[in-house]
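Exercise 7b. C-alpha cells:
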C-alpha cells in the first residue's frame, strides 16, 4: 500500500485524558515480565455489535447497551451503562525533554517527557499528566503487571494491568501502550488503547473489555496516520542512488512495516514467532 504524507489534527491532551478519565499518584514501575494475575474463571462467549466509523477509517465491536462517543480518524471511544470506558487508537506527539505535570500543549506537541525514560515511566507520566489536567487530588493508580511486547525494531510496547481510584470510585484498567522512535527534531509519538471497568464489575466484564480491545480494526491508511512521525524517517547511509530507495519510497516502506507490526503485535496480540522479522 502506498503511503501518503497526511496532516492529522492530533487530539492532544483530550486523548491523554481519555486514557485516564482522571488520575494518578503512581509509584515507579519497572517494565519487566511481571507475574500475571490469576486467570479469570471461564465465561460465556462475548457478543459484540459491529460498529464502523462514519468516515470508514475504523471499526470495532460494541457491547450491548454501550454507546460510541467518538468514531473518526482511526479512533473509537465508547462508554458503558455503569461507568465503563474504552478508548481505542489514541496517538499524541511528545517532545523529548523534562517532564512536568500540568503542561500546556504547544501546537501539535501535547507534552514533554524524556525519551530515554523506560516505557513504564512514560506510561506513568501520561497518567500523571491526565491527573493534573483533571485536577483530582484523590486520584491514585497502581500497576499490577507490565508485560513487554516484542516489537523492538519499530516501537517499545507493553500491556499494563492495574487499578485506579478517583472521585468517581475505583476501577480496573488494561492498556496496550507504545512509544515510537524519536525523530531528528526530538519528537516522538505515543500510542495506546485503554479499557477501564468499575472495580465491582471487573471480574465479570474483563472478557468484554478484552474482546472490544481485540476487535479494533483501523484501515491500514488510518493506522499509518495515527503512527505517522512528525518528521519523515531519514534514509540509512548508502540506501539512495545506484538502484536504492528514494526518501519517499523509504518512508512508505517504514510506514507499512510499523503499521503491520503494531497491528499484529499490539492490536491482534499475535505471538512473536508469527510476526514479520522486521518487527523484532
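Sequence design result:
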Amino acid at each position: 500500500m502506498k503511503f501518503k504524507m497526511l496532516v492529522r489534527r492530533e487530539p492532544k491532551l483530550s486523548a491523554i485524558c481519555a486514557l485516564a478519565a482522571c488520575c494518578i499518584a503512581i509509584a515507579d514501575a519497572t517494565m519487566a515480565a511481571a507475574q500475571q494475575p490469576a486467570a479469570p474463571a471461564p465465561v460465556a462467549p462475548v457478543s459484540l455489535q459491529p460498529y464502523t466509523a462514519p468516515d470508514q477509517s475504523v471499526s470495532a465491536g460494541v457491547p450491548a447497551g454501550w454507546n460510541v462517543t467518538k468514531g473518526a480518524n482511526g479512533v473509537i471511544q465508547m462508554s458503558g451503562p455503569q461507568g465503563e470506558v474504552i478508548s481505542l487508537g489514541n496517538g499524541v506527539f511528545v517532545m523529548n525533554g523534562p517532564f512536568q505535570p500540568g503542561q500546556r500543549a504547544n501546537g501539535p506537541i501535547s507534552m514533554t517527557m524524556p525519551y530515554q525514560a523506560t516505557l513504564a515511566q512514560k506510561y506513568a507520566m501520561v497518567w500523571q499528566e491526565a491527573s493534573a489536567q483533571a485536577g483530582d487530588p484523590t486520584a491514585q493508580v497502581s500497576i499490577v503487571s507490565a508485560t513487554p511486547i516484542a516489537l523492538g525494531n519499530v516501537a517499545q510496547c507493553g500491556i499494563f494491568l492495574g487499578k485506579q481510584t478517583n472521585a468517581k470510585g475505583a476501577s480496573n484498567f488494561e492498556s496496550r501502550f507504545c512509544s515510537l522512535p524519536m525523530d531528528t527534531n526530538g519528537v516522538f509519538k505515543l500510542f495506546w488503547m485503554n479499557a477501564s471497568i468499575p472495580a465491582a464489575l471487573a471480574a465479570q466484564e474483563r472478557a468484554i473489555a478484552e474482546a472490544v480491545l481485540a476487535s479494533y480494526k483501523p484501515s491500514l491508511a488510518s493506522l499509518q496516520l495515527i503512527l505517522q512521525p512528525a518528521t519523515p524517517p531519514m534514509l540509512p547511509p548508502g540506501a539512495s542512488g545506484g538502484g536504492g530507495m528514494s526518501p519517499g519510497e523509504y518512508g512508505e516502506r517504514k510506514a507499512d512495516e510499523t503499521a503491520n507490526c503494531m497491528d499484529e503485535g499490539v492490536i491482534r496480540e499475535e505471538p512473536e514467532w508469527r510476526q514479520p522479522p522486521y518487527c523484532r
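Instructor comment: The domain at 12-233+245-279 is CATH 3.40.1000.10 (Protein Transport Mog1p; Chain A). The chain has one domain: 12-233+245-279.
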